[in-house]
Structures are given as structure tokens and as C-alpha cells.
Amino acid sequence: xxxxxxxRPILLGPAFLFCLAIGPTLAQIPDLKLGRVPTLAPLVKEVxxxxxxxxxxxxxxxxxxxxxxxxxxxxxxxxxxxxxQVSATGSGVIVDAQRGYVMTANHVVEHADVAQIRTKDGRxxxxxxxxxxxxxxxxxxxxxxxxxxxxxxxxxxxxxxxGDFVIAVGNPFGLGxxxxxxxxxxxxxxxxxxxxxxxxxxxxxxxxxxNSGGALISLRGExxxxxxxxxxxxxxxxxxxxxxxxxxxxxxxxxLVQSGRVDRGRIGVTLLDLDSPSDGRVQGARVAxxxxxxxxxxxxxxxxDIIVKANDMPVRSATQVRNLIGLTPVGQRVRLxxxxxxxxxxxxxxVAPVAEERARVRSSG
Length: 365
Hints:
Strand content: 35-45%
Order of helices and strands: HHEHEEHEEEEEEEEEHEEEHEEHEEEH
Number of strands: 20
Shape: globular
CATH class of the largest domain: Mainly Beta
Helix content: 10-25%
Largest sheet: 6 strands, antiparallel, barrel
Strand order of the largest sheet: 1-2-3-6-5-4
Radius of gyration: 23 Å
């Protein structure tokens, strides 16, 4: 899988016309005396000023090939590693115009020493890195002197459904701002081996180099995902793209603003997906183990419990619960509903620091 994204046009069938007709006023169908023609132009004009191009420069250290040759080391003092100048381009989304916060993909800025942001109207701004989180591939930049910026409203990615129409905005191949469209193909995609915390929105949007960090937008004009990756054997779009849900990205952003990093905790459980229907349930997370003395044990969780809700949201998989716990700030609580012996129970578990949790496990033998 490649860390890059964008979207392709869709067939404008009756279902799409109906969606536009009942949707927000931003998505209108004008009468051009040639019949009613669908258009997303009003929506695009509203949201695209919030999507920016990002250029970064930095340095990376890599193994020196000359060092691998013993003869080279004999003739000169060859360093084991050498420093190389790198540059990269990508996309970003202004999420707070007053404070100048720009959300993007971590892999766009991971080697950045200098970052420059260019808005749709051609203005250029210097930016600094607030923080980044490789585990979710989310990073946050801040424009040094934010002036007359436009932000985009954050939506609720938990409310998405397969089949919802979306548009994507980014800077594919350095061509400049480009708008494409598609639909939500699947939700909760995991197991892609890209990052440690996976809960991707899958879209048939055309994802291409330079779209990384760009916006996935609902027809309500709200940001519902940050485009991040594609599956493509040949390096181009094949209609399988992925975005980080904005609810996940928002929780990461809150911690980056507060401390510049994401501090993850644990509650002391090992979770597994349901490998077979359990008492009629096909979705949920089975508790495979509970650490002695852990917050989970103190809250009453036991091995064999099936977690069916977390913070009032239905649980689809073990990954979903792990993501929620991993993105909940240390010291805050997670509300769980579990099934045990055909009866439902409730547990409120406080997220503990990883070091503290490991110390408890060691002390318990």
C-alpha cells in the first residue's frame, strides 16, 4: 500500500440527483434550459479555500554505501551514515483559521525542517510543526502569521454510511488544487499494515501522489477525513483509497495542540475479534485476557466478556476499541458495555499510562 491520495468522477444517476435535490443548499441543480444538470460547484467554491498545498524541506540520515565496503574504510575515514537533503509536497486542510492550524498527513512532513503553505488564492505562508503522530499518520502545522484564512467545519465521521457521496480536494502530482468525487466504499478498514491505529474510510476516490493530507468532504461541506493512502500495484489510482476518519484525527489534534505529542495509555486488556457468532452476535470485541491489578480488572471486566459498546458507540471490532483507548488521554475514562452470560453489564475504566500499567503487571508476577 502506498501513502498517497485523490478521487474520480461518478456516474450521475437518479440516486445522485435525488441526493443533490434533498441535500444542502450548497449542492444545487441549476436549470440551464437544457434540462436539470447536477453540479457541485457551489459546494466546491465554499470548501476549497480551506485546502492548501504544502512544500517541505529537510534532511535525513541514511546508511553510507561506502561504509559497507571494508576497502573504502581502510583508505579514508568513511562515516557510517550520511546526511541527505530532501523535499516533499502534499496537501493540508485549514481547521482553525484564527490560530492558523493546518491538518495534514504525517508522512508529508515527517522530515520537515522548513514548511511553506500556499493557499488557493496563491498566498504563501511560513509554518511550523506543532506535532505529529506516526501511529495515525496525522500531523499539525501552524501558520506563523494567519491572515484572512478560511477554515472548514469538522464533521462526524461516525455518522458516515457506505454509499455516502464525498469529494476530495488536494494537489495531485503538483498540478495545483484539484477536486474529484466518489463515494464511501467501506468503513472501519484495518489490517493494511500502514500504521499502528487503523480505522480507515475506504473510498473509490482517485488517490494520487500529492493528495496526501488533503480533504475528504461530505456533501454537507464538512471535513470527514484526511486522505492518506492507496492500494495500487502499478502506483496509480485503481479506485481503492483510504482516509483517516476526522473523529480520530480530531482527538490526535487536541493532544498535539496541548502537548505537541500523543500520550497513549492502556487499560490492561487483550482484545480479539469475534471469530464466530456469539449468542447471535457477529460484531463486538472479546476480552481474551485481563491483566492483574489493571484498571480493567478493577472496573470489573473479566476474560470472556464481549464488549458491545464503547462510549455509547456500537463496537464493530477489537481494533475499534483499541483505537478508542489509544486515543483517549491518560487519566480520562472510557465507558464500556459488555455481555457476560447473556446479560449486559457496564464498566467505566480509567486509562492509565503505559509505564504504570506495565509496572503493575510486573509487580503482580
